[in-house]
Design brief:
- This protein is an alpha+beta fold.
- The protein has helices at 96-105, 119-128, 146-154, 172-187, 200-217, 223-237, 281-296, 302-305, 370-385, 387-391, and strands spanning 2-6, 16-22, 29-30, 35-40, 45-49, 54-59, 66-68, 72-78, 190-198, 244-246, 249-251, 258-260, 262-264, 267-269, 272-273, 310-314, 333-337, 341-347, 350-364.
- The chain folds into 2 domains: 2-78, RNA polymerase II/Efflux pump adaptor protein, barrel-sandwich hybrid domain (OB fold (Dihydrolipoamide Acetyltransferase, E2P)), CATH 2.40.50.100; 190-391, Chloramphenicol Acetyltransferase.
- The chain contains 10 helices and 19 strands.
- It is elongated, with a radius of gyration of 26 Å.
- A hairpin with a 2-residue loop joins strand 18 and strand 19.
- Helix 2 runs parallel beside helix 3.
- Strands 9, 12, 15, 16, 17, 18 and 19 form a 7-stranded mixed beta sheet that branches.
- Residues 86-111 have low confidence and may be disordered.
């Protein structure tokens, strides 16, 4: 019996997808729920699993082809088994010495292994015949990213003074990011305000309670949960910051669905931590850690990225001292975190050295006045400089 493999149902905001890569070829045996191919939309990379055990009988579209929702991309013969080429009878190994060459030959099979690459990186490696083992990785744990592969391709050849160039098309995700950023710049009256925060008390609390927090909840106490909780609390007190524009109407959201910016080798994505106002620090840390892992592994779904009411982005992880983040429509504001630097400040008439961070809020000036934006930023500053008050809901 032949079973059709179809493109998953795509949301209304996603019209089509591009086949990023096939993990199986015609004639290969497949198992139920085994990933057959990766689809790249303008938001995420989707995996398409096999619905049954069987053999891949037909592939209807190739890598790079555009497909739409529910379109048939492959056919699987249910219950069939892959044909195995005839082999000669095995010759018994007479001694341990005779078996040594077979062991040493095993690593050759993984010489061009691309299984650790992201779908976009795998496509670049396959298109240009690059062995990932020849590329120095800059990702987490030395992992080779798409950018590493592109840099390897574009590396100048010293001999002969060659000046190579290469034109590489944008991925669907990068194209969508570019469109959204231009939409934001062209449709929003954007303004940015700044403040600075002394994170000394937050650091003391993390040092004093971090170990017991991790033992109790099974996850480390990071900075992001403090910021996320402070933002969620402040949004309740300053609802206009959490609102959005729809035509001539302003929509006020009575909940804090926080889009947390996560950097991946395919670009910036913003999975949504929903109802953050009612979550504990541990719940927030676990949600963020789960999304970060899914983002690195290319496992984020479309539902994970839709519906946020406010965004938090942290350029400080890359060393940014100050920036003006861009609002993500239809949201009306975004908070930018930055790197923590020890700086001299005046405290109780004395000059002291404190761990300081610049924070920024970019906002849609059509509905948010400067006073509201500044008060919101001061609210966050006060909570982070007095985290015990934040824990008590004050």
């Amino acid at each position: 019996m032949s079973i059709e493999v179809k493109v998953p149902v795509l949301p209304e905001s996603v019209s089509d997808a591009v086949i990023a890569s096939w993990h199986k070829k015609v004639g290969d045996a497949v198992k139920r729920d085994e990933n057959l191919l990766d689809l790249e939309t303008d938001k995420v990379v989707l995996e398409v699993p096999s619905p049954i055990d069987g053999v891949l009988k037909e592939i209807k579209f190739q890598t790079g082809d555009t497909v739409t929702s529910q379109q048939v991309v492959a056919v699987i013969e249910a219950g069939a088994t892959a044909s195995v080429p005839a082999v000669t009878a095995a010759v018994p190994v007479e001694s341990k010495t005779a078996a040594e060459p077979a062991k040493s030959a095993a690593p050759a099979a993984s010489k061009n292994d691309t299984s650790e690459l992201s779908p976009a990186g795998r496509r670049v490696a396959e298109q240009h015949g690059i062995n990932p083992a020849d590329v120095s990785g800059t990702g987490r744990g030395g992992r080779v990213t798409k950018e590493d592969l592109v840099s390897h391709i574009n590396a100048p050849v010293v001999a002969g003074g060659a000046r190579p160039e290469q034109r590489v098309p944008m991925t669907r995700i990068r194209t969508r990011i570019a469109e959204r950023l231009m939409q934001s710049k062209n449709s929003i009256a954007m303004l940015t305000s700044f403040n600075e925060v002394n994170l000394g008390e937050v650091m003391k609390m993390r040092k004093a309670m971090g170990e017991s927090f991790e033992k109790t909840h099974g996850i480390k106490l990071g900075f992001m949960s403090f910021f996320a909780k402070a933002v969620a609390n402040a949004l309740q007190r300053h609802p206009i910051i959490n609102a959005s524009v729809d035509g001539n109407d302003i929509i006020y959201h009575g909940y804090a669905d926080l889009s947390i910016a996560v950097s991946t080798d395919k670009g910036l994505v913003t999975p949504v931590v929903r109802n953050a106002e009612s979550m504990s620090f541990a719940d927030i840390e676990k949600a963020i850690a789960d999304y970060a892992k899914k983002a690195r592994d290319g496992k984020l779904g479309l539902d994970d990225l839709q519906g946020g009411t406010f965004t938090i982005t942290n350029g400080g992880t890359f060393g940014s001292l100050m920036s003006t983040p861009i609002v993500n429509p239809p949201q009306s504001a975004i908070l930018g975190m930055h790197t923590i630097k020890d700086r001299p400040i005046a405290e109780n008439g004395q000059v002291v050295i404190a761990p300081m961070m610049y924070i920024a809020i970019s906002y849609d000036h059509r509905i948010i006045d400067g006073k509201d934006a500044v008060l919101f930023l001061v609210d966050i500053k006060n909570q982070l400089e007095n985290p015990h008050r934040m824990l008590l809901g004050l």
